[in-house]
Amino acid sequence: LTSTAVNSSAVYLNWTQPINFTSSGSYTVNNTCSPTQQTGQTSIYITGLSPSRTCISIVYSQINGVTGVGINISYITCKKIYFIKTHYVSNLSPIYGILTRWLILLLSPSVVPSQPGPVTIQNTTPTSIAVSWGAAPNMTAGTFNYTVTYQTGPQINDTTTANTSLVLTGLQSGTTYTISVATIGPVNLKSDPVYAYNVTTSKAYTLLNDTAVYLNWTQPINFPSSGSYTVTSTCSQVQKTNQTSVYITRLTPGRTCISTVYSEIRGVTGNGINTSYITRPSKVSPVVTNMWKNGSMQVTWQNVYAADNYVLSLSSNKGTSQTISVFSNETLSYVFSDLLPATTYILTITTVSGSAQQLSDPVSNTTYPSQPGTVMVANKTTDSIAVAWGAAPNMTSGTFNYTVTCQTAGYQSNEAITANTSLVLTGLQSGTTYIISVSTIGPMNLKSDAVYAYNISTIPLNVQNLIVVSTSTEHVILQWAVPADYKDGYQYRVNVSNGQSIVTASSGITIDHLTPGMLFSFSVQTLTYDQTGSALAVTSCCTDAAAVRSLICSGPNLTQAMLNLSWTQPDGFNNGFAVQVKDLITVISTTDYHLIIPNLSYNTEYLVSIWTNGCGNRSNVTTVSCMTGITGMFPVGVNIINIQYNQFTLQLPVHLLDSSHGTITHYGILLTTNSGTLSNEAIYLNKTFSDWKAGATPMYLAMVTKSQLQTRSDVSVLEVLIGDNSQYEGYTNGPLMAKTSYRYALVLFTNLVIKSSLISVEQSFFSISAINEAGTLPENPVIHCCVCMSVSIGLYQSIDDTQRKNLYVTCDSCYCDSFCSEPIKVEHYEAHFKKQRADSFCGFAEEFEDLKPVGVAQPKSSALAPENRGKNRYNNVLPYDSSRVKLSVQGSPFDDYINANYMPGYNSKKEFIAAQGPLPSTVNEFWRMIWEKNVHTLVMLTRCNEQGRVKCEEYWPSESKHYGNLTVTTSSEIPLDDWTIRDFDVRNVKTAETRCIRHFHFTAWPDHGVPETTELLINFRHLVREHMDQFSRHSPTVVHCSAGVGRTGTFIAIDRLIFQIERDDMVDVYGIIHDLRMHRPLMVQTEDQYVFLNQCAMDIIRSRTGTNVDLIYQNTAALSIYENFEPMKKSKNGFYKA
Predict the structure, then answer these.
(1) Are strands 1037-1040 and 937-940 parallel, antiparallel or unpaired?
(2) pTM of the predicted structure, to 2 decimals
(3) Which of 906, 1121, 1112 lies closest to 1028, judged by CA?
(4) DSSP strands (E only) in 395-457
(5) Element (H, E) at 268
(6) The pLDDT of residue 812 is above 80
(7) 1041 catalytic residue (yes or no)
């Protein structure tokens, strides 16, 4: 691409035609200084530019709508030219002589002359072209001329004229010229030219074929009819004619010839005119082959004489074409590439020799179709394969098909032809490997190269009769029958549910590294050569349970005859264990991995077998031989009767002295008043009553006697009187002290040795039971009756005659029991209250003191069992066996224990459950008790932490939490100044049953103390009772504090007291506490709490008569702020109304 400046406003661009550029192509010229132009030539004039301007032009070639990559050029337009006029003046100077002064004047910029009008071709001859043009407008005659330029190829000629027409002579016939006319003005400034393109002179000859030429000429002026012409030629003979044309034949193809024509008139020959021409070259016969399947064709031909080059033209039936020029000295073949597939092309070759050309006959051929895309397997079955492939690109729909071939060794299926890009090959053999090919079939049945999918197998048949041959803890052996279509090379993939995957060629396998006691599923799949898998054959089984490890068996001493078993958790999973002792098999489901086997014989060897149960086979049996221990005499069933101020009687079951524990020769009772922990009780066997009385020992042997069981086989119990002053050797069974708490231990001797009237501890054989509570002895009745009489006399003197008649207080029972209590009528209670509170509540203190021994002699064997001791918060607050709450047994016989007792209320004997505050280890049991006893009302009377000490585990969750099989969710919480009310949703995950429980948490009660006012507790009781009456009519209400005796007893007592006052018009605080203590020890634990209850009774009575304005007592509702309280009904916002 080059540029030539024409003037200050025009530039001439020309460029070289691209290789293989077709005649139908065109060019687009973009300019930064002028509009875009289109042209079919390889040059263009860009006009209308500004002077001294930098411009960029870009030329793009276009063929069949496709634009090629542009080439660009930058240039600067010419500057304007200015006229300069000079003038000089000479002066005579006396000093310097003649002086010359030049005046240089810049007149004006020069003016480019205007363009001529359009150029018109008037006439053409073989040697001349007559042209004319319009006059340049606005030009002054005589100040300008026209320059005419005519150009063919690289040769440029020009001439100047003042006229508007000109005959260009001396031209070559049959030649194309470009003619331009421009105006030339002052200082030779030239206007933009005006063009006439592709002007061709007429030919003096016509090439007829490769051996003949037709010549014609113009008759001379005034040529007579008698004249003739003589035609000579360098390539043929001379001819004579009187016509203005002649045929010259028998020429050699591709030969340059010169013919001269002479005119003759009456024998006179004129000057001849001549013309030169080249005969047409010989016609070539091209051969077109499509031997390649890559979208190309090869053209070959034979060289012809005098050929300068060959122009190959290839066009298709789809409108595409290519033209290429091949010079004869290069090659006689050419390959057309990038052709459309499955397309018929027509080829012609034009032989060029100089200005002569010869067109070949057309030859056609068709390209091969393009290959299909990649072959993919869409689906496989046992007898079919569904394949799909990509469409063959650049193919015209409807002009081609696909042929699909499915081949295997020794077998080839029929070809299938389809116009689609997918096909299902049917009728195949199962488990067989095939090679699948797809080709495109185009016109003339030309077929593309095939696209292959190798080693495609149909799905094999699945294995048969999959079974589990055997199992162990870590292994499973599988076996199966080969599939019906079995072939060499088949393999089998075994998948295990634990993630293992094993491939084998055998029809059986051992699966290793499994987990004992676990359910596994197994699948077996037939595999072909290319790993195509069959349908799955599935089975499942459990591995054997693993045997227990580290089995330890021991027989503890000083307990029941039992064996303690413990073992390490076996590997894997299990459903529990089975333990066999003799003929008894115990099946347990536990995660604690220990078991107590009770009800055995002492000091006896047992063979214990244990195995693990699982979802499959049980484990191997682990066996151990162990002996039960020697008994330490656990006095189960010992009752205390006939408690007097100085003695009591123990009733011993005779089985304690039978030979099951060895031959008992003597038995004795160790006695102590010490409430602390005593160890090594054997050192006190030689301590006597005298030693204890002198303060020399905390414990002494109160009595010892010879066993008479063998001679008294008809009795079921033995009564042992303690404190009867009897003697044995050096021991005295001395009288006991009134109002004193005693504890005892039973001593059994299998060999008793006496030295110096005392037992020889070193030589005797004996066992000592645990120390048990005997209770507190009552007051000496003589002293107590004197007190009663004094009280009665004082009371009698302090009231009038009417009151004396209605007074119920009697002391008839003082002589037979320390329990001296009778209900007092409401109207007489104020006088009784004033009397008892005199002298710093001395009367109430004496009443409370009399309550201390109540109920303490009752057995508490379950609470004292070693397995249950850790479930008690305090060692001195243990539930009596007779009234304790029993839970369901879930494995261990001790699962039924919880530190809680049924308590009588006013309405029923089991209206309440008094419980200790849960420990971290007993929270699950606490919720289990609430569920199993169908509790709907729960009262808590302590804070979780008081004065830096933990009083109770916080057993409820902030949101939701699991406790064993129960899920507890806190659905609402209402905190107030003195108590908080919560609602719990308790759901049993096994049964999906949900219950609602209301939690009344009183927070204003100090430990071992009393609330600030009686009104506070009375109002709280009414709030609780209202809920109980609606939801707990047929189930107990759980009440607990920390130990479950002091505050708990006070709350239960005040509920009974209010009912007693309201319904019976009686007050019997002492009787209520006595009843409570017969069901749980230490109920109403402190004297302050006892006095507080009496004060409550007094305030309630006064509120009924209107004399206590400080107590706003409401019998039916509780507090005014709870008047709209709707128990157990949720509001829309999730909280309960309050």
Answers:
(1) parallel
(2) 0.41
(3) 906
(4) 401-408, 411-412, 416-418, 422-425, 433-441, 451-457
(5) strand 268-269
(6) no
(7) yes
